[in-house]
């Protein structure tokens, strides 16, 4: 039975409409973020760069993204969702357009950094929007559905941008896609509201560096926040680095597939992500205790299938194994969302943005690290994908150790908070 405080938002059709606009902004941001994943080989030819320089595109983008997570969380807590999403939409649209028109590698890098900065402002804002418009019991499912639309954005870049890139060319493809950013910006400015009527948060009485330090310190002090960050760190990156940049080169150059076949496998990752996301959201909403087993189970399955693929005799894995790899990688995104389900009950509403920023920083830090390591190892080993991709296991081991270390502490703290909420609900409903 769900415990609902009297001040819980009502949800309903209006909530779906307003929240849907925020999700649309995130959808477009993911299209822009992942568009390089199907254009990596084209970018290498266009700017005449090697593997390390190519990986710098995504590393810089993720470096900006990860570095912005805590500042964005603080901004959302203080400025509200609409303002932050507006800043983000402007930045990622200008970044995508700049990437389309960049004549040099340096200008293209600057454009991807701007895109990463705008992208960083979207997902945390959408999570906050969901907590402001929907009851708390809907939190896990709302978050998974938001992530599902992000995956759909990945699907658009995988299927449509890859096709238009080779039919229309670089400039027309990226400049044309930038118009989607203009569209969602207009919808955002016209229709999005931070919260329903009668559910405005209390005005903040805090400002300055002391407030910032306290927000971060109190969020970090919660074991649930730190556990959520490590869950996100451990589960997101195996699929992220693959989809963001290195999947297509691995499948084409190391596995000998055609671009068309490789594109179909990348699409399979996205479709698997969408299906698994719906399942995980339902399971966690009904059985909160399933969070840690799902996270660890996904990590174990990912490690197993990567080991089988990289260790296959002869180097070329059979198609059935590559299909299995892509299906399992599809579970990484939904598993990473479990991190937010640890941080959400551990923090009060006024810290949700900051706590979500800390969690979100985990997976993108791991993905950035993996992108960098793969690029360096490929150049150092003469394009040995087997050696480069083995770094997956190092990061997974680190993450699992931290999850096991924090899970009991987080569970005890969460039970304390549940008892406190139950006592408050009981006090509210006791007749005078």
Structure description:
The two termini are 24 Å apart. This protein has helices spanning 13-34, 40-47, 51-79, 81-101, 105-120, 123-133, 139-168, 170-191, 208-221, 223-254, 259-286, 291-310, 319-329, 332-343, 352-381, 385-389, 391-429. The chain has one domain: MFS general substrate transporter like domains (Growth Hormone, Chain: A, Up-down Bundle). The radius of gyration is 21 Å and the shape is globular. The longest helix is centred in the C-terminal third of the chain and has 39 residues, at 391-429. With 432 residues, it is mostly helical.
Question: Can I get a quick summary?
Answer:
The chain is an all-alpha fold and 432 residues long. The protein contains 17 helices and no strands.
Describe the protein's topology.
Layout: H1 13-34, H2 40-47, H3 51-79, H4 81-101, H5 105-120, H6 123-133, H7 139-168, H8 170-191, H9 208-221, H10 223-254, H11 259-286, H12 291-310, H13 319-329, H14 332-343, H15 352-381, H16 385-389, H17 391-429
Helix pairs in contact: 1-4, 1-5, 1-6, 1-7, 1-8, 3-4, 3-5, 3-15, 4-5, 4-6, 4-8, 6-7, 6-15, 7-8, 7-11, 7-14, 10-11, 10-12, 10-14, 10-15, 10-17, 11-13, 11-14, 12-13, 12-14, 12-17, 14-15
CATH topology assignment: Growth Hormone, Chain: A
Helix segment count? Answer: 17
CATH architecture: Up-down Bundle
Structural class: mainly alpha
> What's the CATH H-level superfamily name?
MFS general substrate transporter like domains
Describe the biggest sheet?
Answer: none
Principal-axes shape call: globular
């Amino acid at each position: 039975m769900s415990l609902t405080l009297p001040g819980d938002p009502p949800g309903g059709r209006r909530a779906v409409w307003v929240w849907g606009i925020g999700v649309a902004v995130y959808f477009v941001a993911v299209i822009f973020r992942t568009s390089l994943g199907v254009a990596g080989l084209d970018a290498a030819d266009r700017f005449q760069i090697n593997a390390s320089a190519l990986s710098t595109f995504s590393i810089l983008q993720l470096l900006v993204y990860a570095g912005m997570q805590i500042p964005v969380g603080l901004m959302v807590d203080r400025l509200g969702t609409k303002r932050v999403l507006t800043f983000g939409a402007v930045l990622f649209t200008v970044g995508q357009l700049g990437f389309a028109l960049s004549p040099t590698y340096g200008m293209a890098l600057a454009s991807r950094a701007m895109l990463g900065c705008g992208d960083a402002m979207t997902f945390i804002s959408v999570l906050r929007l969901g907590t402001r418009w929907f009851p708390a019991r809907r939190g896990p499912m709302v978050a998974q559905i938001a992530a599902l639309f992000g995956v759909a954005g990945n699907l658009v870049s995988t299927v449509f941008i890859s096709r238009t890139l080779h039919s229309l060319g670089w400039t027309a493809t990226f400049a044309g896609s930038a118009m989607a950013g203009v569209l969602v910006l207009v919808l955002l400015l016209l229709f999005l509201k931070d919260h329903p009527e009668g559910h405005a948060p209390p005005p903040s009485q805090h400002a300055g560096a002391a407030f910032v330090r306290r927000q971060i310190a109190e969020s970090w002090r919660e074991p649930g926040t730190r556990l959520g960050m490590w869950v996100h760190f451990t589960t997101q990156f195996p699929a992220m680095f693959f989809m963001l940049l290195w999947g297509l080169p691995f499948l084409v150059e190391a596995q000998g597939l055609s671009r068309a076949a490789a594109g179909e496998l990348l699409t399979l990752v996205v479709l698997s992500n969408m299906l698994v996301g719906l399942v995980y959201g339902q399971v966690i909403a009904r059985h909160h205790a399933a969070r840690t087993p799902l996270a660890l189970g996904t990590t174990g399955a990912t490690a197993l299938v990567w080991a089988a693929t990289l260790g296959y005799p002869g180097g070329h894995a059979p198609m059935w194994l590559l299909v299995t790899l892509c299906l399992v990688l599809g579970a990484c995104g939904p598993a990473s969302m479990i991190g937010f389900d640890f941080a959400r009950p551990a923090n009060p509403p006024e810290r949700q943005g900051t706590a979500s920023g800390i969690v979100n920083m985990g997976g993108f830090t791991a993905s950035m690290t993996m992108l960098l390591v793969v690029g360096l190892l490929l150049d150092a080993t003469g394009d040995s994908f087997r050696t480069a991709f083995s770094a997956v296991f190092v990061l997974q081991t680190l993450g699992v150790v931290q999850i096991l270390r924090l899970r009991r502490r987080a569970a005890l703290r969460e039970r304390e908070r549940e008892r406190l909420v139950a006592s408050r609900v009981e006090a509210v409903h006791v007749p005078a």
